[in-house]
Amino acid sequence: MGICSRRHFLLTICVLQLIATIERQVFDFLGFMWAPILVNFFNIIFVILGFFGAFQYRPRYIISYCVWNTLWLGWNIFIICFYLNVGILDKDSDILNLGTGSFSWWHVNGPGCKAVYDVMEPELFRPARPTNVTDCVLDYEVIEILHAATQCVLGFMAIVGGICLSKVFLEEDDSFDFVGGDDFGLAGHTPLHPITN
């Protein structure tokens, strides 16, 4: 596998991650899920950084992108556990919305979903949460888990691709021979002693 195909692999993963994260960001904005909005924003920044790192042969950018993707993997595993109610996590809690009472946009607007609201007790600053949602083709938990699982797969591939590509870039940097051989990076500078014939 040549350096060009490794670059193209990582660039492709970056583009797919960017598309998937922007799509996820849109639906998190529609549901006012503030913690995911914030984390998605950082992911968009680091994906762009990784893209430019691969495009412009910058191994430090790629390494920071790989470190972020490790954190991103952890976040998405947390999201999967959150919607599966693993351990003490409760999908009905206010962890992801930072106490605003909002909920996943997919909860009410999923494919085929019909929501029933209790209009007897409206709250002024909190969105109306449905009392019952029926006829959903896919429950909102499944949709959120699929989003997170897709990000986990892309994040893992990004880490592997980023490590391979940054290793190649760093090896290439180490083997580079400056003009003059042993000038230790001082090419273009006048020597301290004159050269005589």
Automatic annotation (TrEMBL):
Species of origin: Dinoponera quadriceps
GO BP term (any one): regulation of sodium ion transport
Pfam families reported for this sequence: NKAIN
Membrane spanning residue stretches: 34-55, 62-86
Major localisation: membrane
Localisation per UniProt entry: Cell membrane
Keywords: Cell membrane, Membrane, Transmembrane, Transmembrane helix
GO annotations of cellular component type: plasma membrane
Source organism phylogeny: Eukaryota, Metazoa, Ecdysozoa, Arthropoda, Hexapoda
Family, per entry: Belongs to the NKAIN family.
InterPro entries (UniProt xref): Na/K-Atpase_Interacting
Domain of life: Eukaryota
Topological type in the membrane: Multi-pass membrane protein
Protein name, per record: Sodium/potassium-transporting ATPase subunit beta-1-interacting protein
